[in-house]
Amino acid sequence: MRISDVSIPVKIVGGLALMAAVAIGAVLQGASTARTVSARAQSVIAGESLAATYLARANQRVYRSGDIAYRGLSRRDPAEIRELYGRFDGVLAEFRDRSNEAIRALPRREAQIRAYQAAFEAVVATARRAGERAANGARDEAQKILVEEFDRSLDTLKTAIAKTITDMTDEAVATAAAADREAEGAIRTVEIAVGAVATGVFALMIWLVIGTVSRPLRRLGTRMTSLAAGDVVTPIEGEERGDEVGLMARAVQVFKDNAVAVARLREQQTSGRGTFVPLA
Length: 280
Fold this sequence. Notes:
Blueprint: H1 8-73, H2 78-85, H3 88-105, H4 110-135, H5 139-228, H6 244-273
């Protein structure tokens, strides 16, 4: 089927429908992209935030270990010293539980958090060694172990965990900012696509109106004027079209045929009056 066989309303409605379909499709695609970006960002942000929270709770146990170590050193009774240092078992278990929760929330940090678990176990082992010296009466040796070994390793671990928590928070903020930029980019892409397609469809509609409707109608109007002036020789263009222009062209052709028939009749009448017919 040729474009000239399609009716004018169908051409216009089809063009508008095409523009609307492309616009709707682009908007849906943009919305889908934005949702995907948002979901991915929310997943990362949630993981970072949750892991940071659990790791902060684990770090509280690290701080508590320092309190236990020095409280035990202040006691004189060996049984009481051993009872206080025995609390490290619960602190160490709580640290493992909280840090394991951080790993589940953010698996890509597992190696780093496992290293913190091993470091804390070493810190607790140093504290227990000092506690055992104190329980056995070697308080000065216990004091030296705490000051020279325990404090240094404890401070290093606390600082490292605090820095990791800060890094997690910064990464969550950076991920949110990157998601915003990506979503904005998706929206811009949709806007550009919709604008480009709308421009293309609009140009196509202009071509359809001018090329297949306006110009043929103008030629048909000119031909009707010439027909009214008596031009019955020039052919009528567009009769083969299947749209409204073709319908009008065929109607004009009927007028032309009638004009030709009238002209022929007049010619016959004129020639008949000028002919002498003898009586029998």
